[in-house]
Amino acid sequence: MNDNAHRRSPPIERREFLVAASGVATGMIAPSALAGERKTPAWTMRQSTSSIHYANLPIEQACAQIAKLGFEGVDVWSAHAGCPHLDDVQKRLGPDGLAALLAETKLKLFAFSVYSGGYRRYAELLGKAGGGVAVRGSSGPCKPAELVSRMKAFLESLKLEVELAEKHNSLLAIENHGHALLHSLDSFKAFTDLNRSPRLGIALAPYHLQAAGESVEKAIEISGRQLFFFYAWQRAGGVKQLPGHGPADFTPWIAALAKVKYRGYVNSFMHGELKTDAMSAALAKSRAYLKECFTRVAGG
């Protein structure tokens, strides 16, 4: 692959996170100079969704469905719950084929979700496809008194994966989960305090925070610039997991993302299978709902 293809539209530019890591303010948009003047939003929401929602379709058709709904980015899943997409890309399409598919559908590659198979297996593919976020879990739970030492050991265990992320122009995001090391606000704080790598961050799943009785907004605040992936996903059953379908008001969550100037995509998500047309209708509603939430946050 040529150099231009290798640098194709990474979701978070190298300069951005290296500047953020050095603590230098980015100064994205200056505030309005006149009182009462309408302000330009300092943050713009981008939306994506996950290919696993169309696990029964080939990756080409899954991307076509996602693009048709107006999503800007895609999160490609490995073999969790039998999703074939990432392994199929690796074996059949390769990085050039994936890049061509994304160009055809006008989608940006946001992430590879590598809960099955692990990041190392797909690191080179992700890098050659342009770079992106690799999402994985943490490790088993621990007693509160052991949290700092266990988190430190976990972060140290990721050294080789962080080196791969550097080599392949990618980021590694650790998802919070029930009965896991990363699950509570205290564990988010330990992670962000101890993490020293600009390549390593958090994939935040509100579903699991709600299950633990924790504040999603506070978790976003703690994560700050270390937040690499955000699941627009609420604790409910079936299609009510999706934004705009269940009881959760996503507006405060979007406001919190805006406050930390989250650099990734807001990724509508649910577990469970729906028929293609039903899934597309549900995701269309979620996308429209999130746009409404952002409009309220931006004061439009």
Characterize the structure shown.
The protein is of the alpha/beta class. The chain has one domain (43-298): TIM Barrel (Alpha-Beta Barrel), CATH 3.20.20. The protein contains 12 helices and 8 strands. It has an 8-stranded parallel barrel with strand order 1-2-3-4-5-6-7-8, surrounded by 7 helices. Strand 3, helix 5 (119-128) and strand 4 (133-136) form a beta-alpha-beta unit. Helix 3 (59-68) crosses helix 4 (85-105) and helix 4 (85-105) runs parallel beside helix 5 (119-128). The radius of gyration is 18 Å and the shape is globular.
Give a brief rundown of this model:
With 300 residues, this protein is of the alpha/beta class.
What is the fold's blueprint, element by element?
Layout: H1 3-6, H2 14-21, E1 47-50, H3 59-68, E2 73-77, H4 85-105, E3 108-113, H5 119-128, E4 133-136, H6 147-157, H7 159-167, E5 171-175, H8 185-194, E6 200-204, H9 206-211, H10 216-223, E7 227-232, H11 251-260, E8 266-268, H12 276-298
Parallel strand pairs: 1-2, 1-8, 2-3, 3-4, 4-5, 5-6, 6-7, 7-8
Helix pairs in contact: 3-4, 4-5, 5-7, 6-8, 8-10, 10-11, 11-12
Helix content: 40-55%
The shape, in one word, is globular
How much of the sequence lies in strands comes to: 5-15%
Number of domains: 1
> Compute the gyration radius: what is it?
18 Å
Mean pLDDT, all residues: 90
The SS-based structural class is alpha/beta
Task: State the name of the first-level CATH class.
Answer: Alpha Beta
Assembly category: single chain
Number of strands: 8
Provide the spatial order of strands within the biggest beta sheet: 1-2-3-4-5-6-7-8
Kindly report how far apart the N and C termini lie.
Answer: 43 Å
- CATH topology type: TIM Barrel
- What is the CATH homology-level superfamily? Divalent-metal-dependent TIM barrel enzymes
Taking pLDDT < 50 over at least 5 consecutive residues as the criterion, the unreliable ranges are 1-38
For the sheet with most strands, the description reads: 8 strands, parallel, barrel
